[in-house]
Write a structure and sequence with these properties.
Chain A is of the alpha/beta class and about 375 residues long. Chain A is built from 11 helices and 6 strands. The longest helix of chain A is centred in the middle third of the chain and has 27 residues. The radius of gyration of chain B is 21 Å and the shape is elongated. The N terminus of chain B is likely disordered. Classes of the chains: A alpha/beta (about 375), B mainly beta (about 220).
Chain lengths: ~375, ~220
């Protein structure tokens, strides 16, 4: 029996000596060694186009809860979460500026539209701007929408540049020799502002006596057209110009936002139809292939609202910001339910809320979008 | 003390090699085997606990490693055997809704097992089939995450790591050995282990996985 004992002791010793080693992060490099991320779209991908003048002095710039680490998360916008995942430097706004709206908004300088991309020797490649539409140059917040003397309009129109997506892509091409590279990840997410403007038009028409069905049909048709146009821009101005890694995120279900909920069930139904029509035309128009990843944020947003707990959410209907636009929302302007216990502590309670304002996500909401995109990139073999 | 035991094992082995008396598997004999063992987990995992993308489950791929055993014949028919060997490294891949993300990590494990075996046929028969059963202790360690795992659990943040538990399970086996000469024999066996484990990510999510692997091995043995 002794010889058995010594042999088993030796075996066990060999086994356990090998059994050392901690748990490691492993290789964190994406499978494609991206060198840059280029983003086109609207406020959902804007990382500081309007971080100048009156917005800057309020600590704003992102359409979410502003301030690095304000909620304890490292980033604010989904493009920032994604860039960090891809080992790229944080995205920065390719163009900054505000159109001064004197006498409503005092000019604080440094508001002249200025490029920070290759055209000025800069490296910023996030062309997305709050208020931007797909094709039409005037979107929400544009100075052209200011109605003199109407203070309610003033609060919404702060002089946003709202350069439309078609022009954003055109600017990139004009400033970068007309091509994309195979080491760039190009992201496109737009359509929300076409929806808001078309809903406003619908409401104005109905108020002016136009038949409700006629007005609704026009609004839905306009969204379908915008979706088709966005697909054409992606095909002709991005995919056909050398880009081999393109991510198109469809429009999340806008009918689930506090903006639509507040408008009532009839409006919600219209908004949903407009969103679906936009996405249908977008997806149908895109040239599918190895260079394109189509991310279904619409379905994900619906699932997040239905199965909140699965995503770590507790509230998908209440904005966390007390400011009407999250563009100037910070840790200091949060509702009591999510405000931090002390000024120095992060507002971690906001990380269970989906929305910062009536349409824009909290940093956590953006992180969920980044996870969704990351999952699709991994499935595609890019990450 | 371990060093001393290993040394005495070597000394004992050397001394036994000179003895050369044993010819059959009879009571009191010691047999050692070295071979190759392949572990094929039959995974069924629960969904990763929230917050996580819904329907995130995992699969653990097969792994092979050098296999070492030592057996002691208690009677001519009943033996006790210790199964060990080098560590196994299993790839972990995403399944369920995250199917297609590919490899999300890897983990090492060792699973020493003690078997009580019954050997059929007379002690001096050239071919002796056997059945066995016993406890398995599995230790999971040395995991590695990946860019994909971090991207879906903590994008842009601290890379996510995977933690494994130590677990007890039960193993049954069926095998046979064939005597080549008075010392050497070949052996093959199929094992089924019943074992569950719980993996925890550094981001807090957990998943319970029923592993229940089937193992197959082939080895060459020496009877002292």
């Amino acid at each position: 029996m002794k010889k058995f004992h010594v042999l088993t002791t030796a075996l066990a010793a060999a086994a356990f000596l090998a059994g050392c080693g901690g748990n490691e992060a492993g290789d964190q490099s994406p499978r494609v060694a991206f060198t840059a991320m280029v983003s086109f779209g609207d406020s959902l991908s804007d990382v500081g186009t309007y971080d100048v003048g009156v917005v800057k002095v309020q600590g704003g710039g992102h359409y979410s809860i502003n301030g690095i680490g304000a909620t304890g998360l490292l980033w604010t916008n989904w493009t920032e979460f994604l860039a960090a995942t891809l080992k790229l430097s944080a995205p920065c706004a390719a163009e900054t500026g505000l159109t001064p709206l004197a006498p409503y908004v005092p000019s604080l300088g440094d508001e002249t539209p200025t490029f920070h991309d290759a055209s000025t020797g800069g490296t910023c490649t996030d062309y997305a701007q709050g208020g931007s539409r797909v094709t039409a140059p005037i979107g929400p917040g544009n100075a052209a929408l200011v109605v003199a003397g109407n203070t309610s309009t003033y609060s919404n129109a702060i002089g946003q540049l709202t350069v439309p997506v078609v022009t954003q892509i055109g600017n990139y091409l004009a400033h970068n020799g007309g091509t994309f590279s195979d080491k760039q990840l190009v992201t496109v997410l737009a359509g929300g502002n076409d929806l808001f403007i078309n809903v406003a038009t619908f409401q104005a028409q109905v108020a002016g006596g136009v038949d409700q069905t006629t007005a609704a049909t026009a609004a839905v048709t306009a969204m379908g057209q915008a979706g088709g146009e966005l697909a054409a821009y992606v095909n002709q101005m991005i995919l056909a110009k050398g880009a081999t890694h393109v991510v198109v995120v469809n429009l999340p279900d806008v009918s689930l936002t506090p903006y639509a909920i507040q408008a009532g069930t009839a409006a919600q139904a219209l908004v949903k139809q407009m969103t679906v029509t936009f996405n249908t035309q977008l997806q149908a128009g895109l040239t599918a292939g190895s260079a394109l990843v189509y991310v279904d944020a619409f379905s994900a947003s619906e699932d997040q609202a239905t199965n909140m707990a699965q995503y770590g959410l507790t509230n998908v209907t209440t904005p966390t910001c007390t400011t009407s636009s999250s563009l100037v929302c910070t840790e200091g302007t949060l509702i009591a339910d999510v405000a931090p216990a002390s000024a120095s502590a992060p507002a971690t309670a906001a990380n269970t809320y989906e929305y910062a304002d009536s349409v824009h996500p909290t940093p956590y909401g953006y992180r969920l979008l980044s996870e969704l995109v990351g999952e699709q990139l991994a499935i595609k073999g890019w990450l | 003390m371990k060093k001393h035991s290993i040394a005495s094992a070597l000394v004992a082995t050397a001394a036994l090699c000179g003895a050369g008396a044993a010819q059959a598997q009879v009571a009191g004999q010691v047999m050692v085997k070295v071979g190759w063992n392949k572990i094929m987990p039959k995974v069924r995992s629960t969904e990763l606990s929230p917050p996580a993308l819904p329907g995130s489950t995992i699969d653990i791929k097969s792994a092979s490693a050098l296999f070492l055993t030592a057996a002691y014949m208690i009677t001519d028919d009943i033996s006790v055997e210790v199964l060990g060997g080098l560590p196994y490294k299993h790839d972990i891949i995403g399944t369920g809704s995250v199917m297609g993300v590919g490899k999300i990590g890897s983990i090492h494990q060792i699973s020493p097992t003690v078997m009580l075996q019954y050997r059929f046929m007379p002690a001096d028969a050239p071919l002796r089939p056997y059945l066995g059963a016993g406890p398995t202790f599995a230790k999971f360690y040395g995991s590695k995450g990946s860019a994909a795992l971090t991207a879906v659990t903590n994008p842009g943040g601290t890379p996510t790591t995977i933690g494994g538990d130590t677990e007890w399970g039960a193993t049954v086996e069926a095998g046979a050995n064939y005597k080549i000469d008075k010392h050497w024999f070949v052996d093959a066996a199929v094992l089924k282990t019943f074992i569950n484990t719980k993996a925890q990510l550094s981001t807090g999510q957990t998943t319970k996985a029923r592993l229940n692997p089937v193992s197959i091995n082939a080895s060459i043995g020496y009877t002292f």
